[in-house]
Amino acid sequence: MSGPAGTPMQFVEALPPEEAARANFYALLARLFYAPPDEPLLRSIAGTREADEEDGGIGRAWRELAEAAVSADAEAVREEYDCAFVGTGKSPVTLYTCAYSVRYTNEAPLVELRRELSALGLAKREGAGEPEDHVAALCEVMRHLVSERSADLALQKHFFERWMWPTAEPLCNAIQRSELTRFYKRVAALLLELCTLEHAAFEML
């Protein structure tokens, strides 16, 4: 996702630690769902397994992802990603969140999403082939809202509650139930814990 000038989104100001952590979680999840991690990224994730002592759900999910990264092989994870999320014809598990929406049929939610992104001044990066409802794209939008519109919690809440929260659980459940996933079960667990935490925080506004 990019800004009005077609350039990749950039962090433009220092953020408080909690907001920086939120932005970084969304950034990592966007990267992991957009494409399988390469060896350097796996090693980077694995290197943090002793760093987070938080006992909450998201801390536990992060440690489990880091532990999975320790023994993960980049080629095996790439094959897992391709088999589960790409496949031949219809993928066994779709990462397009509109597929998990029960409120609409046909293209209505994607059209609505595109209108909202246009109103935010956001558009797909040039050459990007994935529709805007891909979970990686939604995570990237949330990263943008947290990092560059950090003061507008109402806007963050609206986008999250409309596009992330309703589909997070069914998407993550589909990934975790699949016999084709192993590493991505941990990625899905992290996404679900982050969304659960975000939803609880937004409910307090």
Show the helix and strand layout.
Layout: H1 17-34, H2 39-46, H3 57-71, H4 74-86, H5 108-119, H6 135-148, H7 153-177, H8 183-203
Helix pairs in contact: 1-6, 1-8, 2-3, 3-8, 6-7, 7-8
Describe the structure.
The chain is globular. It has a domain at 17-34 and 95-203. With 205 residues, the protein is mostly helical. The longest helix is centred in the last third of the chain and has 25 residues, at 153-177. The protein has helices at residues 17-34, 39-46, 57-71, 74-86, 108-119, 135-148, 153-177, 183-203. Helix content is 61%, strand content 0%. The relative contact order is 0.18. It is built from eight helices and no strands. α3 (57-71) runs antiparallel to α8 (183-203).
Q: What labels would you give this structure?
A:
205 residues; mainly alpha; 8 helices; 61% helix; globular
In short:
This protein is an all-alpha fold and 205 residues long.
Number of helices in the DSSP assignment: 8
Number of strands: 0
Per DSSP, what share of the residues sits in E-state strands of 2 or more residues? under 5%
N-end to C-end Cα span: 27 Å
How does the helix and strand content classify structurally? mainly alpha
Radius of gyration: 16 Å
